[in-house]
Structure formats: structure tokens, C-alpha cells
Amino acid sequence: MNVAANPNDLSDVIAADKANVWHHLVQHAMFETVDPKIIVEGKGLRVWDATGREMIDAVSGGVWTVNVGYGRERIADAVRDQLVKMNYFAGASGSIPAALFAQKLISKMPGMSRVYYSNSGSEANEKAYKMIRQIAHKKYGGKKYKILFRERDYHGTTIAALASGGQPERAMQYGPFPEGFIQVPHCLEYRAQWDVEDYGRRAADAIEEVILREGPETVGGLVLEPITAGGGVIVPPEGYWPRVQEICEKYDILLHIDEVVCGMGRTGEWFGYQNFGVKPDIVTMAKGVASGYAAISCTVTTERVFDMFKDDASDPLGYFRDISTFGGCTAGPAAALENMKILEEENLLQNTKERGAQLMARLEKIKAKHEIVGDVRGMGLFQGLELVANRETKAPLDEKIVARVVAAVGARGVMIGMTNRSLPGLNNTLCLSPALIATAADIDAIADAVDAAIAEIAATL
How high does pLDDT run on average in the chain? Predict the structure, then answer.
């Protein structure tokens, strides 16, 4: 592929970027000596930068987003056609793609019935929190307003989302935060907090202990990722989710599952929670909903939750008084509808299961070869390797050394991720999440690069 074979061809773009763009999650002092990475083209699982270098993208756009891969003309065409016909109208009115995508989405989510549109995962979660808080006022005299969240989980970058996030380094320097968000313990058995046989159930029991401490009459919601993503790729142990469901039903607590990362096939099911037989009240999603071809997020609820905001003649302010300006843009649902068709037509959920099994087998072999790999975990095409300085003590490998591993993988033509600036002393997990179109050859290429990079860095320790 002939993409910017001469880096000078884009010198004006690089200069404009350095002078005017404020990048996400980057310390810009580095750009005084190096140029920012400019990604100029993508096709399938591969991207090309401004120097013409080709890379396998094993993190789906850097943040678990491009589920169906790059260069999907049919999605771009669907968006273009819709925007020409009707690009936008405020969400108080409907649109054809919004109605059709909601119908299609709900068909994959038994027990759910309503879709509220906005345009980012943070915003989708904010909507859910507002629903829980408003229900507290409408039904419980304002008392049942507290929202529980889990240590190591992440729910977004806005102030309330940070208040409900279990990653301390993400929240540092942004307080004070709104009250009423209460943390419960994580469920990572590799770093066990209890010496018990049935660890999953014990980790869920810890949630009940927090509820009893706070007072069940004050707790209105519990927000959890089905599989913790940026906090270390943590699959809850067996027995965890049934017990969580039981606790929520016992104390009349709305169960809110954040599918921003796991949603749209990432784990081999349409949604991560569907691997565990759980029945949520609220599900939020973004990222893979349209595979990054347009901005869209959804807050999906049961009819029971929806009905709490309907037909309350005694309260003129009783409906959900919320708006998302760009929740009215038709590009998102148009892209999302085409994205779902691709997932179905190309049988990408089954491919995710098969390639995920292949990836897990390769990672287990890497763990057996290299002492600095302490744990391998994940599901589908969403997997991680926790790196340690000492396998016996499980002392975490220093974050800077983990970053060297990521760089060494990159030097071999593969882009992977890692936990970073999230968990003090525990930013030591490599993250792999290639697009759901990955082939067997792609998985082998990714695993080969990781294997060789770990060997290279381990040899220097």
C-alpha cells in the first residue's frame, strides 16, 4: 500500500498537529523532541502511519473500538446516504435509523426494551446515574441515591464517571467529587483478598457487606463491568455473577452493567453479561456499537425502569428530563445498524470465540516460557497478561518495564495496550483486543511478537 512513502509529504500536517492539537492521555512535552504518531489509513486489521509504516492493530483503534476492522465502505456509505437525507434532529423527535437500530439492538438483548441515545460511554453512564438518582426521588423520597462501583473498574472521564471509577490515578487532581458513589472490592482472584475456596461468591458477598454498612435503604444502584477492562482484564470467578444478581434483587438495587468495552461481540457473545446468565436493569454501551465509524452510545433499560418515568400525572417533572445534543445525530445509529449486519453476516461472534481460544492457548504457552508472566486471563478477543517481577510473591513488574515490553512489541509491527496511569503499583497488565475479523494468521503474528518482546525485555532484567 502506497501511504505517505515520504514522511515529508505530511510535514505540514505534523507541524499543524504539534502546534494546535491537544492529544488525549499524552504528556506533550515529549513532542518537543519527537513527532506525534499520525495514523493516516487503515484496512482490515492493519494501519499505516505518516512514515508509511504498516502495523497490526491488536487494540482495535487503541481503545477497544474498531470491532469490524478498518475500511468498511458499506458503513461509510450508509452514513453518507443517511446524512444527505436527514443528518440531525433533536432527540425529542425520532428518526428512521434510530428506530431501526433500537429494534435490532433490543432483539439481541432479551429482557431489555428501551434505548436512550447519546454519544460517548461516559455520557451513557451519566444518563444511567441520573435515572437511578431520579428514581430515588420519585419512589424512595430521595433516600435510595447511592451508587456502588467496583475497585479497578472504569466508567468514564466526566466528573461523576470518575467518582464512580475504581482507578485512583485516573481521578487524581480532579476532585472534589459528588457524594454518593461507594466502592466495593475487586474480584481478581489472582490477587486474592480472601483465602477461601469459593472465591467468586466471597467476592460478591463483599458487595453485600458494603450495602449493609451503608444501609440498604440508601443504595439505589450497582454499576459493574462484565469483565473489568482497563483495570487489568479481570474475568469474575465462577459464582460471582449469580450471587451479585441475588444481592441486587434482595435489596431492590438496580443492576447497571457497563458494556462500553465488552459490548458488540468482544467476548464472543453480543454482550459480556450474556456469558454469565445475568439479567441487568440497565446496560450502557459505546465503542464497538458503530466500530468507531460514527459517535454513538446507548443507555438501554428494561421496561420496568422505563415505566418509572411514564404517566406520572401528579409530578409534572417526573419524566426523564435529560438531553444529549448529538444523541439526535443520525450518523450513529445508521453506522451501528450496518455494523450489526456485518457482525451477523460474517459470523464474527463465532470467529471471536475461535480466535479467542487460539489466542488464549498461545498466551498460556508464553506464560509457561517466561517467568515474568504471572497470569493470563480474558475471554474472546479481549485478553491480558499480568507481568510480575517475581512469580512467587506476585510482585508487579514496574510500569516502565511493562512499557518497554509494549514498545518492543511495537518494534515488531504490532500495536498492543497496557494498564497505565490507573492503579498505583499495579499498572502491569498487557492488553490484547484485536478486531473481531482477526484470522488465525493474525493471532499467530500478534502472539509471536508478544513472545519475542517479552523474551527480549526479560533478558535485560
Answer: 95
Specify whether the CB–CB gap between 334 and 79 falls below 8 A: yes
Contact between 147 and 258 (Cβ < 8 Å):
no
CA distance 142 to 447: 52
* Contact between 296 and 288 (Cβ < 8 Å): no
186 close to 152: Cβ distance less than 8 angstroms: yes
C-alpha 229/C-alpha 432 separation (Å) is: 11
Contact present, 49 and 14 (Cβ < 8 Å): no
DSSP 6-65: SGGGGHHHHHHHHHH---TT--GGGGGTSPPP-EEEEEBTEEEETT--EEEESSIIIII-
N residues, the chain: 461
What structural domains does the chain harbor? Answer: 37-68+348-458 (3.90.1150.10), 75-345 (3.40.640.10)
Rounded CA separation 129/190 (Å): 31
Buried b (16+ CB within 10 A) or exposed e, 396-414: bbebebbebbbebbeebeb
Cell of residue 175, nine digits: 476532585
Q: Mark 308-337 as b/e (b = at least 16 C-beta within 10 Å).
A: bbeeeeeeeebebebebebbbbbbbbbbbb
* Residues sharing a CB contact under 8 Å with residue 83, sequence separation 6 or more, in sequence order: 330, 331, 334
* Whether 410 contacts 18, CB under 8 Å: no
Buried b (16+ CB within 10 A) or exposed e, 273-302: bbbbebebbbbbbbbbbbbbbbbbbbbbbb
Q: List all residues 6 or more positions away from 117 whose beta carbon is below 8 Å from its beta carbon.
A: 91, 98, 296, 297, 298, 324, 327, 328, 332, 333
Do the beta carbons of residue 227 and residue 262 sit within 8 Å? yes
Smallest CA-to-CA distance from 394 within 418, 428, 417, 360 is with: 428
* CA dist., res. 308 & res. 143, Å (int): 16
User: How confident is the model over 299-349, as pLDDT tens digits?
Assistant: 999 999 999 998 777 888 899 999 999 999 999 999 999 999 999 999 999
List the beta bridge partners of residue 58. none
- The arithmetic mean of pLDDT across residues 135-147, rounded, is 96
